[in-house]
Amino acid sequence: MSIDRIQGTDGIRRPVLASSDERVADMTPQQAFLECGVITEQFCELYTYAYVTGLQSPGEIVIGWDPRDPNGLYTDAAIRGIRRAGATAVRIGITPTPGVALYQVWRGATAAFMVTASHNFRSQNGIKIFYGPHALKLFPDDDRALTKRVLGLDYKNDVLTQSESGGLVDAQDEAHDVFRRFHMDVGNSWLPEGESLGDFPLIIDAANGAMSGLAADVFGKLHGGDVLELNNDTASGDVNRHSGVADLEGVAEITRDMLQFADHAAVQQLFVRGGKAAVFDADGDRFFRLDHDPDTDTILVLSGDETAVHQARHLAPPKPGTLYINTVESDLNAARAGGELGYTPVLTGVGDKWVLRQAADSPEIYGIGSEETGHNISRGRVTRRDGETVDVFLGNGLKSALNTFVATRGLSPREAHRPFPPGFKRTFYVYYTTKELFAKGSEAFSGVGAIIEEKCTLGPTVPQGRPEEPDMLYLAVRDDEGRQRAGVFVRNSGTEEKTGVNVRGDRKDAGALIAVGEAAVLYLARTLKDWDHPMAQAEKAVLEALEHGPLAADALPIPDGVHAERLLEELANKEKVIAKCAQGYERTPFGARMLEAWK
Fold it and tell me: CA–CA separation, 302 vs 125, rounded Å?
C-alpha cells in the first residue's frame, strides 16, 4: 500500500521504543514506525534530518521538548538529525510548545522542532514542527512532501554517514526570558499596569510538563493572592499522570463523589482550598480552567469554548468582519455567541494549525480562534532580536489562562461557567482501530454514514465536506426550514489509535444525539477494531472478566507488555466501557453492548 502521509493532526506521535529493543532491532526506523507503530530514537534523527535537508537555507533550527524523555534518548537523536543536515541546532531544553514557537520568531530562526506527545502518557512521544516568520505548522501538502523524503531515505547510508557538521547553541535561559517577558507585557496579558488578577487562591497544574515553574512564576508576579503549583516534577518524566487537561475533556462539573478524579491532584486541592486552577498539558499549549463553587461544593470546568467566548467578549465590540474561528469540535452555540458579539464566525477542521492559517492569511481581521480541547489563539506582540515588533499567533496555554482570568474578573464561579447557553456535545470513541479502513470512499465511511442517517430522528442529514480534512465524514442535521440543528462528524484521531464519533447540537436533542453516537460507534467497533493489537485484546479480556461483577485493578487480566494505566484510562474515561467503583472497576451498560457487538 502506498503511504503518502505519516503525520496526524499535528506532526508525528506514537508509542516509543529504543531501536535496540529486540522487537525492532532488525528493522529500519521506517519499518519500526510503519509495521510496529512505534517511534525509535533513530526515527527521530531520520525525521529531523529529512525536514532540515528539505529546506533551501536551513540556518538555525530551534529545538525544545517536554520532560517525558529525562534521559534524552529521543531529544538527543533529534538534535543529531539537525546537525547531520548541516544546520545549527539552537537547544532550549524543556520549554513549552508556545515558548519554542515564540523563540523561533524572536530569534528569526528558519524553523523549530518541539519533541512532545502533548497530553498523552509518557509512553508516547512525537515531534511538532514550526516554520517561517509566523511559526506556522505543517499543512497536508507539507506533510506529504516530508513523508516522501522520510520514506525515501536510507538511515544507515544517507544519515549515519553524515558528520555532525552543524553547530550547537544552548539558549534555554534566553528562551525562557523571552517567554516570561512576553506574558508580562500588558498588551499580551491584558492586565492593566499596576493591577492584579485578584486575591483568590490559585492552583497551577503543570501536568509535570514543560510549563512547570514558568506559569507559576508569571502568575506569581501578576496574581494578588496565594499561588500553589502542583505537578511540577520535571525529573521523573511522568507527564500527564493524575494531572493536566486530558481527564477534563467533556466534563462540565465535578463533584466529590466522581471517582475518576480521586487522584487528580488539582481537583482534590480545589475541594480543600477553594479558589481557581489553571490546568495545562505536558507541552503547555492547552489550558482549561477550574473554579470551585462554594455554594454547591462543585468544581466547574471551563474548556476552550468557554474561555474563548470570555476572551471575545472582553475584546468586543469588534470591527466589522473580525473573525471568530473555532473548529468542528466546538459547541455549536460557541460560534453563535461569537456572532451575537459582532464577530464573523468561521468553522475550520480539527487542529489549531487551521486557526493559525486563518490568522496568517487574514491578520488584519483576525479576532479569536479556539478549539474546545483548550487550544486558544489570540493576537500577541513581540519585539524580535532585530528590534522589529511583530504580531504573533500561537496556541499558548499560558496566554489563554492570563487572558481568561482578566476577562472574568468580578464574575462569580457560576457566572464565569456559562458565558453562552451551552449546547450538547459528546464524543464516542473506539480505540485500537485500523484507521486506514476509515477513509472517504471506504466501506466503513459509507456504512457509518448510512447508520447515522438511519438513526437520526432530528431531521435530514446533509454531507458537508471539509477540504482541509477530506477523510472526515461531516453530516449537518437540518430542521424543517433548512437551518442547521445539529452536526455529527466521524474522524480518525490524528495522534492516537482511535476513531471518534462526535455529536453537537441543542441540549433538548441530547437523547437523540446520544442514540446516533452510540449506534455509530458500535458499528465502527465491529468494523475497525484491530484484533492484532495487544491493547484491543486486553480490552476484550477486561470486559469479559467484568461480566460477573466488579474487580480490583490488579485482578484484571492485563498481560505483561500492555501499559495497564493507559489501558484503564482509555477504557474508563475515553471509551466509557468500564467505570471506577469502590471495589475497583465495573463494566458499564455501554461496555456490555460493545462486547456484544464483537460477538
Answer: 27
Span 40-66, average pLDDT:
97
Report which DSSP code applies to 236: S
Return the percentage of the chain with pLDDT > 70, whole number: 100
List pLDDT tens digits, range 117-163.
999 989 999 999 999 999 999 999 999 999 999 999 999 999 999 99
Tell me 296's DSSP state. Answer: T
Residue type, 37: G
DSSP string across 26-47? TS-HHHHHHHS--B-HHHHHHH
Beta strand 578-581 pairing with 498-505: unpaired
Strand partners, 581: 584
Residue 202's contacts (CB-CB under 8 Å, 6 or more residues apart) are 219, 223, 225, 226, 227, 228, 275, 276, 277, 278
- Tens-place pLDDT, residues 357-414: 999 999 999 999 999 999 999 999 999 999 999 999 999 999 999 999 999 999 999 9
Region(s) of the chain under CATH 3.40.120.10: 12-172, 185-422
Give the full edge-to-edge strand order of the sheet including 276-280: 227-230, 202-205, 276-280, 287-293, 298-302, 253-254
**Continuous H helices in 456-588:** 510-528, 534-545, 564-569
Helix or strand (DSSP H, E) at 347: strand 344-348
Decide if domain 531-599 falls under CATH 1.10.10: yes
DSSP structure class, residue 439: S
More confident residue, 510 or 482: 510
Strands 124-131 and 12-15: antiparallel
Q: Are 491 and 351 in contact (CB under 8 A)?
A: no
- Domain 12-172: assigned CATH number: 3.40.120.10
Phi, psi of 477 (to 5 degrees): -100, 120
Superfamily for the 185-422 domain: Alpha-D-Glucose-1,6-Bisphosphate, subunit A, domain 3 (3.40.120.10)
Contact (Cβ atoms closer than 8 angstroms) between residue 551 and residue 545: yes
CATH T-level assignment (fold) for domain 423-529? TATA-Binding Protein (3.30.310)
Q: Tell me, what amino acid is at 431?
A: Y
Q: Give the span between the Cα atoms of 364 and 319, in whole angstroms.
A: 10
Domain(s) labelled CATH 3.30.310.50 in the chain stretch across 423-529
The pLDDT value recorded for residue 2 is: 67
**How far apart are the C-alpha atoms of 550 and 146, rounded to whole Å?**
48
Model pLDDT for residues 20-35, shown as the tens digit of each residue = 999 999 999 999 999 9
The closest alpha carbon to 49, from 82, 79, 73, 19, belongs to 82
